[in-house]
Design the sequence.
């Protein structure tokens, strides 16, 4: 199972996720508070993160990310980033 490391609010936590789940879902399932004002539908950017490592283990950038202007690495919307078989490390963007 892939491991996802989150840096948020001055804390760092590494959790196990399931392949095929998003960075947002894995975080929420593990009690990590991640803003998701649009409910994980790719319409707000409050779930934005910076990928520190493992970008190659995430799904390709979605049309919704493009539409929201989240087009440049290392930025990704955590609700649109599906984790594959490898480990990922992200820093949540604080607003
Ligand atoms: S939760 Fe709104 S864009 Fe991800």
Sequence:
């Amino acid at each position: 199972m892939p491991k996802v490391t989150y840096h948020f609010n001055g804390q760092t936590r590494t959790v196990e996720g399931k392949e095929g789940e998003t960075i947002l879902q894995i975080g929420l399932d593990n009690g990590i508070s991640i803003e998701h004002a649009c409910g994980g539908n790719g319409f707000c950017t409050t779930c934005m993160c910076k990928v520190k490592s493992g970008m190659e283990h995430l799904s390709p950038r979605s049309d919704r990310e493009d539409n929201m202007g989240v087009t440049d690495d290392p930025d990704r919307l955590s609700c649109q980033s599906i984790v594959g078989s490898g480990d990922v490390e992200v820093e949540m963007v604080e607003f």
Summary: The chain has a mean pLDDT of 97. The chain has one domain: 3-92.
